[in-house]
Amino acid sequence: MTLVTERTTRSRAPHPLRAETVRGFAPWAGAAVVLTLGMVLAGSSARWQGGWAETARELHTAMLIIIPLAAAAGCWQGGRERRRRTGELLATAVRAPLTRFLASALPVALWVVAGYLVAVGLALLATWPFAQGDRPNLALLPADVVASASAALAGHVVGRAVSWRLAAPLLAMAGYVGLGILAVGDAGPGRHLSPAVPVMDTVVPVWWQPVAMAVWTGGLAVAMVLAYAARRRVTALLPLAAAAAAGVLLVQTGDGLWHTDPLAQHQVCDTSTTPAVCVNARYAGLLPQVRDALSGITGKLAGVRNLPVRWEDREGGTHADEAALPSVTPFGWSLVRGRLTDPEQYAWEAVTALGLRGDCPGKEREDAKLMLADDAVENYLAPSPGQEYFDARDAKGDKVQRAELRERRAARARLAGMGEKERRAWLSAYFGARGGCHPKGVPAL
């Protein structure tokens, strides 16, 4: 009867790993990750919400905060037995030191990863309604998950080894500073070893970069755990060697770890207008908005010759017969959550690029006749949102400023007052001379 009772009691006793996972500090660590990352992303939502690549970049950049937070959580958990003064009691337990270590450390690492994945899921859901193209880019997610879990395990080792209550916050501060230094562009080859190195939203990693980064961070953490808790500490050499090999590969490859996103080199075009309107394929859904913003310009340019073939928006610059569209990146200025914030400003910038597409020397750029014609054309096609302010300021200026204002207004009125046929001929001559940087060829107004 006693034997049966002992077996029943033993079978009902929860596993130590399960008990640590569902109770205690570990769930709070996961909640802290969710709240911290949620606050960071909410404060910068205008910079990433609406673009999959921008969202992936922001989530990866947040590792600058998540890794020190995970390390501090692991360190606090590691010092728990010392704070409770139960370390000597646990040392007499039957379980091996490594088993006891993992039973305490793994729950924090798992909850940190769970919290990070929940925040990632929420960020992707927040981006989805406003995404204008592209596709979810999760290439860096596996390496980020391994790095956060590794930070928690390594922090746990520090918490076990260092008998100081301030070890956790100081470890977080040291981690943040260290990652921040490695994130600087002139940090040298060592920056490629950082799991929180900033990346541009127009680049993607080579296929093996996340694998190498995961081996680098995970190998170091496992080596620390084995060196501290394993009975045969020599086993720590195996993960340490793997981490060293991955680190050497990352450093030697350097900038070759990243390449331009192929999608960023393609465009989606509307050829029904003159010039044609092309937007980057990453924001293909933005084409209707851009076309509508430029519709007032393209309507006035119908029948005009010597225009660029298209407005373009892709990596690598414009060709000789193209004009650059105003940039909508970085998000948060001209584009917020998939909407152009100021279509009039966008149209004016597009006209400026249309007229100034030639690489003109300084003297030709300063030619008074050319500047007068530029102002008249910009005013006719898409006036600057700040034009009224600058005109009012010049009207209150000195004699020279008032005279120049009268000249500009007279030129604007002459261009606007031309007949359709005459204005098309004048604009054709203007764009022909302007594109070739020949100010003498600009017709008079």
Question: TL;DR?
Answer:
The chain has helices at 2-12, 16-22, 26-43, 45-48, 52-61, 63-78, 80-84, 87-91, 97-127, 141-161, 167-183, 209-229, 237-253, 287-293, 295-300, 343-355, 362-365, 368-381, 387-395, 399-417, 420-435; strands at 203-205, 258-260, 267-270, 276-280, 310-312, 322-324, 335-336, 339-340. The chain has 445 residues and is mainly alpha-helical. The strands form 3 sheets. Strands 3-4-5-6 form a 4-stranded mixed beta sheet.
Write up this protein:
Mean pLDDT is 86; it is low at 1-11. Helix 3 runs antiparallel to helix 6. This protein has a four-stranded mixed sheet with strand order 3-4-5-6. A two-stranded antiparallel sheet has the order 1-2. Strands 7-8 form a two-stranded antiparallel ribbon. It has helices at residues 2-12, 16-22, 26-43, 45-48, 52-61, 63-78, 80-84, 87-91, 97-127, 141-161, 167-183, 209-229, 237-253, 287-293, 295-300, 343-355, 362-365, 368-381, 387-395, 399-417, 420-435, and strands spanning 203-205, 258-260, 267-270, 276-280, 310-312, 322-324, 335-336, 339-340. It is built from 21 helices and eight strands.
